[in-house]
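Protocol step 4 of 5: obtain the predicted structure for the target chain.
Materials: sequence only (see below). No template structures provided, no constraints applied. The aim of this step is simply to have a reference model before the mutagenesis design in step 5. Sequence pasted as it appears in the construct record:
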Amino acid sequence: SISRCHMLRQFFEEYSFAFHKRLVEASPVSAGTWPDDLQVPLTDYGEIVLGMPQFEQNFVGLKVLERMETQYSLPWRGMSEKRIHELEKEVGSGRCVLIENREGAAERVVSFTGLHMETSSGQVLVVLAKKGLDSDGELEPEGQLPGVKQHQGELPNQALRRMMREQMRPFAKAVRVHSFRREDRHENSARYKIKTNYIRVIYSASLPEAFTSSLSERSPQNRLPRQLSKQERPLQKWTMPEAHACQILQDSCDVYVCAFMDPECLEFFRKSSGRKLLTQWVHNVTVNI
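Step 4 output (structure tokens):
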């Protein structure tokens, strides 16, 4: 029985505590809606495990890894020994949660809190590139909304406050947050060859147009642009920002090159043509950190 297994009993206790915490803290501000007889927001299995202590997260993840090894399932066949060790390390550090989904397959769960910050002209702040503070490498293309991965047990509204204290600090006093929405994505991880559920909570906010002109941050310097090839010329309709229009933001881990752009660019950057254009732009930008 469960009472005879200390680890299993502890898991059920912590699961109950995590569910109760989501229940009593659920509100339109923290979870987008009040709980009712049919649903409690942010209480899917993967979301609950994300809110549990590290020990219980590791317990679930290691059991899934053991099952994958025993069954030699299809996702496991497509993963090298190196990737297996990387996944085990990621699970052990709490950077993701590994669960067994309803189909009995391994699923990686990552939580993300983002900010859709819009000016009066309809443009949104987009992270075009980022680089680790302790990295000597080049800037890496991003092409997405500013955001953070939630810490262990952290709720979306708590992640937003942390984001405002760090990454979005230059905008924190002026920005007005109105609401939030769920934009989950279910994709196969190119690195691990398994299904990944990105639990995305996106907050909508507005920013006075006058504030953008008063923000003084370091700007990257563009290198001389090269001649576009015939294949690249159709992409010219998407105008990338000039160096002086970019903003440099920073948190405890990374530095971000951002700019206000039309919101349609977010979907464009997810396409292969958009990734290509963004990568070319990043290669023509240097940032002195």
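Step 4 remarks: Confidence is low (pLDDT under 50) at residues 216-235. The two ends are 57 Å apart (CA to CA).
Proceed to step 5.
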